[in-house]
Structures are given as structure tokens and as C-alpha cells.
Amino acid sequence: MKTNRTRQRLAAGKVAVGIAHTLVPSTEVSKMMGAANLDWVFLDSEHSPFSTDALHELIRAYRMVGVTAVVRVCDFQYDLVSRALDSGAEGIIFPRCEEPDQLAHAVRGAKFPPEGHRGFGLGPPQIDYQQASFDEITAHCNRETLLIAQIESTRALARLPELAAVEGLDSLMVGPADLSGSLGVGGQWEHPKLVEAIDRVIAACAEHGLWPAIQVRDGDLAQFWISRGMKLIGCSTESVLLWDALSSLAHRLRASASGA
Question: How far apart are CA 237 and CA 107, in angstroms?
């Protein structure tokens, strides 16, 4: 069965890099990311228009190219988590985490007994048509699935030690946009209040043996946070990268055409 590439890198003390996939429901995007040798993808089902069918196809495509598909569910509902995992997702991001008990229940829902209460609905496609026993499958999934809690508010910061202590959790991920808004410095990515808050998340991860994670807007911010200890980095989105390249090319062509 498939080893989680991103978990493997993180366990070895390396940084895992990826981008968010939020808008374009084409499996060609996954092929590009695989060819670019990215470690993981932040598949967003909270703010994206992806249907369940589209999300399923994207997850399967990422498995085929060796990129770890981590799905941000839109809520803590068990069925949203189980469907993503049964489609082959190798990780889950729980958004807007503020209540440790709620997070703990959601984490248990992503794990098979005896570690949790996830229902068994896997078949040959989900284990890449390999031969494996029930116990081997459940143990493998429990061990390899990456479970991430997103820190996006001052309330989450206030309960950081409790959230970080949730059993079975692997990582705390900062959502800088919502966190900056909650701190009253919306969109000011280098504001001291935001930097200090994110540093607190990194410190909480170090104390509880978790991997600190963040999703940022551009490469400069990614490099800044890698230098401060972030291990799981998501940078930009497929639609932003496409728009940046398209608008830059259009500007150059228009400039050349007007001067001709």
C-alpha cells in the first residue's frame, strides 16, 4: 500500500512543499504538479466549487502522480471526512479549529478502531488493487493519514496548548488570512502581531511533537516561514499562478504590439 510521501519527508526532518488547488477541476493540474515534483497539494473543499465527483477524480489523479492529496473539509462532519479519505485522500485539514473536544472527536472519526471510530468502506481501488488483510489496511491508514488542525483566530490562539495536545493530531496549520483579520491586521502578512502569533503556533508544535504548517501567498513568504521553522508549506494556488503568468504575458504582448 502507498506510503505517504509527505509524512515520510516530515518524519525525516525535511520541509514538504506544495500549493493549493482551489478552482480548476482538471486532472491536468495534478499532472503538472507531479511533473514539478511537488510533495503535496492542499485540495480545498471549503472555499472551492468542487463537487464530490470532481474532488474524487482529483484525489485519484494525485495518487497516480505521487503527490500527497490533503483535503480541507468545509466542516467537521464525519461524512465529509470519510468520503475524502475513502476517495484516497492521504490527509485532512480541519478548518476553524477552536474547540479541543470537537477537534478530538473529528480526529477519531478519521481513524479506524481501536484509535477512532471511522467506518470501513475501502475496497480494491482505494488500496491500489493490492492484496492486504483488514488489519493491515486499517493499521496502514491510521499510520499514514496526515491530520491537520487549522489555526485561524484569536480564540484558537487562546486554546493553543489544548488544541496541540489532541491525541492523533499531526500538525497545526496557520491560516494567515483569517488569523490576520482576527488579530485586527487583515492582510498585513509581515505585521509584528501576526508574526508573533504564528511563532506561537510553531512553538506549540515543537512542544507537542507536531509539524508546523502554513499556507501563504507567494514564494517570499514561504521562504520567510521556512527560515522560522515551518515544515509543511503550501504556497499560492493553481488559479493565481495561472492568472499571474497569463496577465504578465498579456502585458508584455500588448506593450510590444503598441510599439510596433
Answer: 26
Structure confidence at residue 128 (pLDDT)? 83
CB burial class (10 A; 0-12, 13-18, 19+) of residue 20?
buried
Question: What local confidence, expressed as pLDDT, does residue 29 receive?
Answer: 97
Q: What are phi and psi of 12, to 5 degrees?
A: -85, 5
Q: How far, in Å, CA of 210 to CA of 69, rounded? A: 19
Q: What is the DSSP letter of 1?
A: -
Taking residues 63-67, what's their average pLDDT? Answer: 95
How far is it, in rounded angstroms, from Cα 236 to Cα 200?
23
CB environment 113-130: b (16+ within 10 A), e (fewer):
eebbebeeebeeebbeee
> What would the grid cell of residue 91 be?
490527509
Strand, coil or helix: what is 181?
helix
Q: Which parts of the chain fold into alpha helices (H)?
A: 5-11, 27-35, 52-65, 78-86, 100-109, 134-144, 154-158, 160-164, 176-182, 192-208, 219-227, 238-259
**Domains contained in the chain, CATH given:** 5-259 (3.20.20.60)
What is the C-alpha separation between 76 and 60, in angstroms, rounded?
Answer: 22
Q: Output the nine-digit C-alpha cell for 2.
A: 502507498
Q: Which amino acid is at 185?
A: V
